[in-house]
Amino acid sequence: MEYIEEGSLMVFNEHSKLLGKGFALSHPPSIMQALEGNLPFCWQSNERSFLKDFIACNPGTSGGRIARWLQPDSYLDPSQCELVYNKEDLRCSWPALLTVNTKDQYGNLVQVSNLKVEVKAIPVDQGIMGDDSKKMRRLSRPDNSNMTFGGHPPPCLDVPYEPTIKDKKDIFHAICMMKPYENYSFEELRVAAPAVPRPSENMLVRSNNDGTYLVNWTPGSVGLYSIHVTIDGFDTGEVYKVDVKDPPQGITPPSQTEKKPHHTNKLRKFVQKYSSGLRARTNPSLQSEQIGVIPPEGIIAFVDEIHNDDGVWLRLSQESIREHCTNGHIEGWVLQYNQHLGKTLLVPVEEPKSIAKEIIKETIRRNLKAEATKHRRGPGVYQVIKCGSFGHNIRCGAGLKSTPVGMFTLEDKVLAIADVSSKQKLLFYREIFVMEN
Which parts of the chain are Filamin repeats (predicted)? Predict the structure, then answer.
């Protein structure tokens, strides 16, 4: 007993501030409870609830608020994370890009290494379809008053399909011609067969190493989905409801990795002067990883162009990737027009003229000049070899609208002392004399 008293005194001396108010008891203990050490602690007190909320950092409680105030450092908060997507891009059998933004308790992007992000699309009508199938089975129970199938028992759906041969010559491929189903119509068999539930779809998630994660999803069916995002096993709290629609007819699915044949390099220049550079990224998305920088007045060559919500993206050529990007990347994209800012970042650059093109143009120019010189003979004697029935007009000026002052007849000889070329590409004579035959 002395040792117990000494130990109690030591504990009380060290923790007198905590034990000064006594224990939180629901009622005074009895003698037997005090001797056995079974104290009636009050488990439902406000102080105990506060401690639980403080330790668990529960949001919306006084304990959780003071715990967050005592811990101001940034940490990943799953409830603040969000999923960004475009509803118009969600089409059946069309690849779509979604983005998961991981944020801290203040709503800022935060990068955490070795983070496990999972995104799953669950069809909304799975539970409804399951209830319908149960109701179907209840309605399909054999009953004398059941007229669901015309008084016949529900069809057995385990019979394997096989063509039906009649009179050893006619082959029927219809399922209602089979012997087990000859008393049922197509519609009755369709009602009896439970609808196949749509499976859940797991998405491919890739980290951009900047607090964002790129999610690839190709919806397998049309209808409503609920998208669940888990981060290290914790739900983000918000379930996203999306509606996947049929793709428009006559339009091929968008493919951002499609390679066009016979690419031709084109040049663009980064014209923003007061800038640290234009970022080159792995994919045509502002959330993708940065792999390089195009300096101001820098020139790049591109081989492909696509349009999305961010603006106009250009795919860099291999030479530009080697010049402006880090090693090890085989694909790079830059933003030519920023849709969010309404700015054009890259402008066309005139390609230098090649020597071969200059030689060809000079040759054509010389040939045209020689051809024009050949037809322009200058002053001399000419003879009329072709004219109309009334002759050939002599006009007062070098133009078809000038007033006629005379006329030539066939085989007349003319002495010309000068020639003038007009817009009509015709040859006229300033002073003309008609000679006798």
Answer: 188-244
For the ranges 192-196, 330-334, 381-385, which has the lowest average pLDDT?
192-196
Q: Are residues 227 and 113 in the same domain?
A: yes
Q: From CA 51, how far away is CA 169, in angstroms rounded?
A: 85
Q: Do residues 98 and 236 both lie within one domain?
A: yes
Look at residue 10 in the predicted model and tell me its pLDDT.
85
- Domain count for the chain: 5
Residue 81 CA to residue 108 CA, distance in Å, equals 9
- Please state, in angstroms and as integers, the Cα–Cα distance from residue 157 to each residue in 127, 187, 189, 193, 285, following that order: 22, 14, 9, 7, 49
* Nearest Cα residue to 299 out of 336, 264, 340, 268: 268
User: Other C-beta atoms within 10 Å of 258: how many?
Assistant: 10
The DSSP line for 63-84 is HHHHHHHH--S--B-GGG-EEE
Are the beta carbons of 229 and 237 closer than 8 angstroms? Answer: no
**Cα gap 27→37, rounded to integer Å:** 14
pLDDT in tens, 269-322: 888 878 888 999 988 888 888 899 999 888 898 888 888 888 899 988 888 888
Angle subtended at Cα 224 by Cα 222 and Cα 225, rounded to the nearest 5 degrees: 105
Q: Tell me: do 139 and 112 sit in the same domain.
A: no
φ/ψ region of 57 (left if φ > 0, alpha if ψ in -120 to 50, else beta) reads left
Predicted confidence (pLDDT) at residue 433 exceeds the cutoff of 70: no
pLDDT of residue 43: 65
Q: Are residues 108 and 144 in the same domain?
A: no
List pLDDT tens digits, range 148-176.
677 788 888 888 888 888 887 788 888 88
Q: Which H/E stretch holds residue 395? A: strand 392-395
Same domain, 102 and 225: yes
Sequence-ordered strand ranges (E) for 127-211: 164-166, 170-172, 201-202, 204-207
* Domain assignment of residue 311, given as a range: 266-348
Does any domain span residue 8?
no
**Same-domain status, 224 and 95:** yes
- 146 with 291, same domain: the answer is no
CB burial of 417-429 (b: ≥16 within 10 Å; e: otherwise) equals eeeeeeeeeebbb
Q: Residues 370, 374, 379, CA angle at the centre, nearest 5°? A: 130
